[in-house]
Amino acid sequence: MDASAPAGPATGKTPRKAATASFMGSAVEYYDFFIFGSAAALIFPRVFFPDADAQASVMSLATFGFAYIARPVGAVILGHFGDRVGRQKVLMFTLLLMGGSTFLIGCLPDFSTIGWWAPVLLVLCRLMQGLSAAGEQAGASSMTLEHAPDNRRSFFTSWTLTGTQGGQILAALVFIPVVALPDDIKYGIGWRIPFWLSAVVVLVTYFIRRSLHETPTFTEAKERNEIVKLPVGVLLKDHWRDVLRVICCAFIAAVSTVYGTLAIKYGTEVGNVNADITLWLVVAGNVFALFTQPLFGRLADRIGRRPVFIYGAVSSAAIMPFYLLSMESGNTLLQFALSVAVFSFGYAAANAVWPSFYGEMFSAKVRFSGLAIGTQLGFLMAGFAPSIVAAIGGLEPGGWAVTSIFTGVICAIAAVSALTARETAHVPTAELGLDLDRAAAPVRPATA
């Protein structure tokens, strides 16, 4: 990571260390999160919903979305503690919660053993994953932003989301040999192994993350006694417009779940693409995003957050129809090219920029809460996008059109919302959100 030409108080190794810890933590969290998505598309319909017949795929994809129900609840709880006790402590908790719930999924009995209790337990574990994910990106983004130099915030915070790409790559690579197994092994013990492996990567990341200190911004606020008792109350009273703005901008995340969950299901069911090929398509898009997202982050430090984010939304909507159509073409090379185009050179722009773009809308005393609540409410759209589009015909022949229209609408909402935001690329970290705080402060009468 390039840390040249720092500005502001954050210099030396700390910004790189914070970005690395955020990358690793996000990679672990989203390895866990995305192996569930792969399993929901390729494994769970047969293991947990064999009696659901034609609705098995829709019901299985719906379990993927249940985590997004828990996310707003987790955002309020974890956002409160993130702004009250600190970013680092909450991030340690989210890491252990995600790892534990993922390991438990690998231990669940299937439908043939306990009937409908099996999907019920699956949903409960998925809800725990959602609670954890609610605080991970908000906490990691807040920590990295507050450790970064003023003129490199977007670059350093982009590594938080680049970590999610690392997690998705690892999840796909682990699932590729699983789907190649004979059915009796694949649907028996085979699918459980990726979930059990979560325990290993959680331990590794735990030791990396625990060495990172609390951010100077939060520490200074605590020393000045500026920590508020109820951050959510202050957020909703003084920053509600930015919360709404983040919610609408966060709709863009639906592109990721359409790309990584629904599209691979469309490819296997409609395009007759081999399951392992669909997973390699996801790997290819995410591998290139490892390189393009930091570049988009650097670009946003130069020209601003808004233009890069809006480009990401518009290009995602424009390329998605061609990617989905390629699933029916039988041309593997074309499928890989469009997979990389839509994800690495389209969606990656918005994905790289949003941690700084959203986080800079809020002051330090409500940043964790604002990021967590705004994004998690917006991510509800992402969570249920696969099951919604599947239910209205997205997995039927010609379903690419339904999916493309859906993607276009959510991208348009995100782009228009971004247009209404303030540009904060060149505002010092210490002054972010203070204009709203000052406007909300009560006017004190002059004293003689």
TrEMBL record:
Coiled coil: none annotated. It is a multi-pass membrane protein. InterPro entries: MFS_dom, MFS_sugar_transport-like, MFS_trans_sf. CDD domains: MFS_ShiA_like. SUPFAM superfamilies: MFS general substrate transporter (SSF103473). It holds the Pfam family Sugar_tr. One of its GO terms (cellular component) is plasma membrane. Residues 18-426 form the Major facilitator superfamily (MFS) profile domain. The chain crosses the membrane at residues 30-49, 55-78, 90-108, 114-134, 155-177, 189-208, 243-265, 277-296, 308-326, 332-354, 366-392, 398-419. GO terms for molecular function: transmembrane transporter activity. Its main location: membrane. Keywords: Cell membrane, Membrane, Transmembrane, Transmembrane helix, Transport. It is found in: Cell membrane. This is MFS transporter. It comes from Arthrobacter yangruifuii.
